[in-house]
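Q&A log
Question type: sequence-to-structure
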Amino acid sequence: MSAADFPKRDITFIVPYAPGGGSDIQARRLQDGLQKALGVNLRIVYKTGGDGAVGFLELHSSKPDGYTIANVVVPNIVVTSRGENVGYKAADFSYIGMTEQAVGALCVPKDSKFKTLKDLVAYAKENPGKLTIAGTGSPGHANFAEIVHALGIKATYVPVSGGVGKAVPMLQGGHVDAAVFASSHAAKHAGTIKALGIAGSDPSPALSDVPTFKSLGYKGFEMATTWGVMAPPGTPADIVKILNDALKKAVSDSKVKDAQIKNGLTPMSQTPEQAKEFVANAAASVDRTEKLLKALEK
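Response status: OK
Response body:
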């Protein structure tokens, strides 16, 4: 397949999560820049379910001609690929590049009785298992295991299907005591939810007043969600390069960068090789977390 005349028609961009979530926002943020760089329309479609697995499988089964691409969320792509009979492996895909990253945050409703992380920990220790913490699917469960281990507490995990777009309303409505997701969502919904702790070595750019777990003495838990773009397995390298060049132009736009930073995201720009290596490193990290999760369940 030659890339000499690529692209010559519209490109489909699969969003594997519900509208309004981080992946949808990322796709919309990149859409204009990608269209300008490629000279064709970018048609966004939603293929939701299975914590992203439905959309990832849809891409995996698509023709590797560059005309179908999708969000990739790390570590979600790694975690979901390890399910039984899921139909794909994280290493299968042709990665175009990662575009943005947000450290994790443990959040509560704005009117929560927990004003600080210390308050939450004290309650959880006095009431083992009563504290409810929501997360999105399998990656959320892994993050939950990391959090309770770092805080030295016992709590109850509440799984949420459909991505953060479903988890945020649950937290806002007080249906759970707390939730863990990317700090960018805490920044976006600062009027209704509050972050108690940041799971990174440095504070979030948009939540500079929120302490890190480490600064509060809770070590061993660092979490980040990273968004990028990928193509089906076997997509020719020259087509991937064209898509990567277009992606780099899109993310270099000052409006895109300003929007990312405003929403607590760290802008990223990668080569396809760097993106592939990034996913491989994430897989190694997931191995460690899965061992922790098994130990927690014993």
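Response note: The first helix runs from residue 22 to 38.
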